[in-house]
Amino acid sequence: MNLRARLTLISLLLLSLPLAGWQLVRSLEHSLRDSYQQALIDTTVAAARELASFEVGWPSDSGLYVHRADREPVIDGYDSEWLDWRAPSAWTDIDGAPGARLLAAEYRGRLNLLVEIPDDAFALNGNTDKDALSLELWIETGQESGRVMIQPAAPGWLESGGQDGRLRVQAALQPGDRFWRMEIALLEPLQVERLAVRVGPANNEQVAFRPLIRPIAALSGQLRARLPERTRGWLLHPEGWVLARAGQSAEMPSPQDDGGDVSKLLATLAARLLGVLPNSSGTDTPDAGRFPPQAMSRQPSADWYPLPDGAGFVVRATAPIMRDGNAVAHLLLERPADRFMNAAYEALLQLFVLGLAAMLLIAAILIGFAGRLSGRIRRLRDALDHAVGADGRVRAAMPGPEGHDEIADLGRSLSDMVERQHRHQDYLQSLASKLSHELRTPLAMIRSSLENLADSETPEQQEKYRQRAEEGTQRLQSMFRAMSQAARIEQSLSEEPLRPIDLAELVTAYVEGCRQTFRRHRFAAVVPSGSPVEVDASAEQLGQLLDKLVENAVDFTPPGERITLRVVPRGTQVCLQVDNPGPPLPPGLAEQAFESMVSNRSHDDCHDNRGPHLGLGLYIARLIAERHGGSIRAVDRPEGCRFEVELPRRNRRRSSEASRSRLDQEPL
Predict the structure, then answer these.
(1) How far apart are the C-alpha atoms of 114 and 199, rounded to whole Å?
(2) DSSP letter for each residue of 417-473
(3) Paired residues of 150 in beta bridges
(4) Labelling 363: which of 93, 114, 137, 264 has CA 20 to 30 A away?
(5) pTM above the 0.70 mark?
(6) Within 10 A of 423 (CB to CB), how many other CB atoms are there?
(7) Whole-angstrom Cα distance, residue 163 to residue 142?
């Protein structure tokens, strides 16, 4: 799995945070709502128990609901006064004709009816296709009952009465698009208790009387007295008809401003995500006189619905009023959630939405960062593949990336490594020619001596050629010995511990030894007097370093000239200098003189021919200097050249770990 896929997977794991928040918000939202609903349920149950103790004329289970009119209806056959009650659930079916229905209203004790009859079943003229339109009205009071037949001959006003004259009605008939509409006012008698309506020709079949269900005014006052503050309620018939009400819609508190359209949008979006949208069907008010009968449960329950424009929500609770084990009515209470509940609810929802948006944004940023990161690493890999071939040879320089982060540091390190590999590759390519140049002379001496030895006739000639062959062999052995010595010195550099050494004292003693060894040259030591110049070093390795520098100086110094060794303190550093009079350094050799197998010796320059030179002396000197945390360089002087070694003074030495790592990478 690549880096981008891994970071993408980690980013996707962040989505568990909004999921956990989703569960938390859901549980908190349910806790808040359930606690609020349970409080209203408890209030509703307590009020229902108190109302059940009142002895009132509780209506029967089924009947015809009579609405209470605020003004006297005009009997004209139109429904303009009935619009508030024309909800589909408020109509009552009429026997005798499918689709015929009935509404009832009462004003000051006078009963009014609105009847709608489909026009595809009856006609006014009584033709053969349809029966004549006829409406039979049965009325029953406490002591008597009667019947009146209404048979309109044409649309318009009509008046009819019973056979005994005690029933009298006025009616108006108007045609509609798909039905006949008849408006009826019962003039006599008043206070009807039961009513039966049948459409069709008169017959002797038994009719089904319906009791009239009227609002109970006495219960309205009792209900109002038991309503808590900011609560409205309805006393409902088991079929959903309103028997009493208190706390009308106008008395409900006005919706509060909840923070603007953005807050409402966030709350709505969060509610949809959480699956906690209120029941929008609860917004249907009972102004048509009836609640849905299915909302009437024998067990206390609660629901909630939103206020208009998202300004909060209302909790609704119902509880049955039980008498003798039967539910004679139901009590329904509504209470708007207070400001704290609304704020807490919306805060929870907004917290969820904003948290989810933040997590999605973070995930998108991480995925984008993963893509950019993997792209940078991929470009770094491609640059490295372009610089180094499959055979390990460096084909081109690797550009170092810009930046200050770890990937940029890695790129620059790889670029430096490729550069060092390129130098090492050049060194290996030139090694063969260097060795061939150094080995050609002794091999030629041996070959020619052996050839001449085979052709020689006298013992003197044979001895001469044998000595020349032996001289070539010794030169080869000297070369291999020098290379082996360099390898041993390089290996021993990291093994010998460093100890405090007085560099001035070491140089003074070393110069005394040089005066005994190199008698053809003069030597001088210039060291500070007084306090010692201490460095953390290996005396043996510093001696080897001085050996290489002095041997190089002796080779290029004419006999009788002076070679000077100096110790010069420079703040936190101490400088060890070796000056010799001689030819200046060739151009470009100052930087290459300390590389392996780099030599510029010639027969004319060297004043002390001590055998073959492989260019390893100054290379070993550089290794020793770097082992001690220092550096070495060569500079030209007017009267010769100088080799200068800088070493850190005791307790101020730079860490030598980097130097040891470089030693491991340098070729012999």
Answers:
(1) 13
(2) HHHHHHHHHHHHHHHHHHHHHHHHHHHHHHHHHHHHHHH--SHHHHHHHHHHHHHHH
(3) 135
(4) 264
(5) no
(6) 13
(7) 19
Label residues 8-26 b or e (16+ Cβ within 10 Å = b).
Answer: beebeeeeeebeebbeebb
Res. 539: pLDDT tops 90: no
CA distance 106 to 185: 9
- The residues, any chain, with a CB within 8 Å of residue 70's CB and separated by 6 or more, are 107
Buried-exposed string 567-596: b where 16+ CB fall within 10 A, e elsewhere: beeeeebbebbbbbbbeebeeeeeeebbbb
pLDDT in tens, 165-186: 678 899 999 888 788 899 999 8
Contacts 24+ apart (CB under 8 A), 276-282: 276/26, 276/29, 276/30, 276/33, 278/304, 278/305, 278/306, 278/313, 279/303, 279/304, 279/305, 280/305, 280/306, 281/305, 282/314, 282/316
Query: What's the pLDDT tens digit per position in 354-405?
Result: 777 887 787 788 778 878 888 888 888 888 888 888 777 887 888 877 777 7
Residue 264: pLDDT band (50, 70, 90) is: low
**pLDDT at residue number 356:** 74
Report the distance separating Cα 473 and Cα 20, nearest Å. 85
What's the CA gap between 84 and 69, in Å, rounded? 10
* Angle between helices 539-556 and 503-517 in degrees, nearest 10: 50
- Cβ neighbors of 502 (< 8 A, separation 6 or more) are 532, 533, 534
